[in-house]
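Human: Here is a favour to ask of a fellow structure person. Comparing notes only helps if you start from a blank page. Give me a protein, with the fold worked out from its sequence. Please set it down just below, with no commentary around it:

Assistant:
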Amino acid sequence: MAFSSESVSGACAPVGPGARRQTRQVTLRWAQNAVRVGGDAPVMVQSMTNTDTADAVATAIQVKELALAGSEAVRITVNTPEAAREVPAIREQLDRMGIAVPLIGDFHYNGHKLLTQFPECAQALSKYRINPGNMGGGKKREDNFAQMIEVACRHGKPVRIGVNWGSLDQDLMARMMDENNQRAQPWPAQAVMREALVVSAISNARRAEALGLPGDAIVLSCKVSHVQDLIAVYRNLSARCDYPLHLGLTEAGMGSKGIVASTAALSVLLQEGIGDTIRISLTPEPGGARTREVVVGQEILQTMGLRAFTPMVVACPGCGRTSSTFFQELADSIQTYLREQMPIWRGQYPGVESMNVAVMGCVVNGPGESRHADIGISLPGTGELPTAPVYVDGERVVTLKGERIAEEFVDIVQNYVKRRYGAAALSD
């Protein structure tokens, strides 16, 4: 078969996300710790608690859960004097538990008062999230914003100026709508709203700098709920400033809808090199784990090849050849096991987060996929011999049989991790 020059050049074209957008670097500090956002730092995954912050114990426990799941910064609501009063206690509890994660205070209507009245809260937080649209109107908004920036300057704290289409500055929006009506060809209302988000974010950032906040202490976000709007807004925002950008589809929704919508929006932007920190705003199912949003955020970055957090399991979807659910159960238990081990393995076995494991359900693609993985197992499909060959680094090393295939495969995975990645730790 002959290959055209076009097919060869297409096959050899670079694969992967575009170069990261160049930004300033912001540092979140607490005690002797520091986490960086933007610049040459990797894209950060963050999350937010849904506890009452006035309940310091419950909030500290949830922050710990989110941090152990992989959240690299956790935002907490600070909306009442009772909540602000407990922030230092939350920080202290986390420090006692050895949870090294920065806390971000989420402020709205009364943030200027709380930060001023509770300086211990202002100091315990590593960053403030400010929404200019929720700080009153006119002169009042300007004064409240200035007061929060003054507190940030005094305590040496960075801020995220987070503009949200549900609470956009109405004075700005009205003025831009009036200006739009004067155009020979007015823009659609949705386009004006998108432009207003960008203008609000950048103008407030520049005002913060004019008030004394360093330019490398500002992160921006422009949150909307529709995928195409979010992509358009962040493309525009990224082209007009060099502040680090926080990505997230606000009110993404519940379950598969929220996951799909967030993935669709963020993947496009991340592929274009846009975004320095992300949050997946999932609505938990009743009784569902808050940590799911952290897992989804990590998996978006890992499946795109931007970062590695935990070993990934490749598994076939199943078909008429796999009427047994055994391979599904094994794939799920292995993925759960690997994720649960990561808080321990992360320090003991450097590089293990990049490991690939294959759990396949029949002989059609099973052996081939297993050879491509670091370690893989090809389970018997319907009517196939009750044997399960295991492949390690592309070579068939053993064939498992009997009732203990799952347990024996876990043992093989454990031994592989210790042998391959434990050696890396010793060489360091």
In short: Residues 326-348 form the longest helix (23 residues). The chain has a mean pLDDT of 93.
